[in-house]
Amino acid sequence: MIDFETLDDRGVLITGGASGIGFALAQAFAAQGARVFLTDRDAERLTESARALGVGSAVCDVTDHESVEVALARAWENCGPIDVLCANAGVVRSTPLIEVGRDEAEWQFAVNVWGVLDCCQAFVRRLRREGRPGHLLLTGSEASLSHPDFVRPMQVGIYHMTKHAVLSMGDALRGELAPDGIGVSVLCPGPTPTSLAVSSEAARVAHFGGKSELRGPEAGDEAAADARSRDPREVAEAALAGLRRGLFVIPTHPHIRDDVRARYQEIEQSFDGL
Question: Domain 11-273 maps to which CATH number in 1.10.10.10, 3.40.50.720, 3.30.450.20, 3.40.50.1820?
């Protein structure tokens, strides 16, 4: 397993690394001496972010298997062996679950679930070939752990489904990969001010064509979300702290504990009711 007490000369690949939590993770890892490599589908912003940090980068669409393989190979060539994969790329869109079309639902799953799994598979294959340990940090969400009341008006049910899947994926992978010395953690952040809605809409338009509608989670209860928000840099520092402690689930916001407790109290009450 990877020892996160020291990150000097560790190789870290971050998908969705041009902005938001991905870029904050890059800053945090780089500040601790890691060799960081960024990928993102937004070529212009990726170039700016990589230049700002002085790190390597490659444009990558996680829904494209070949793109993932090429990016991983370039990361290995650019900064040496990769020890940590931060599978962070994701999208979200506000659409009532009862009305969402199959194409849109499958697109969100393609990015948030299959894209994460494809990156993990490619990375683990490389580690196994070289007999190296490693670590997977999957970006889930507080939506991986519960469905907070303040989020419900945002109507991001497909997103919630995908993030529950990421938690389940991580749970399965940690059992499968433990014999290889490959650890797994799932980062579960609460509200964080990023450009996720904007980048998601750009990705949607690129995938489906047409004009931007920009219907993101910002259409929900902004005041409630703002009261709970943490800066992406705080989320990244919480991620590193969780990795050092060997945590599987890494929650980043205090209110997540209450939401999780409420969910499991409801489950306990259901058992009592039987």
Answer: 3.40.50.720
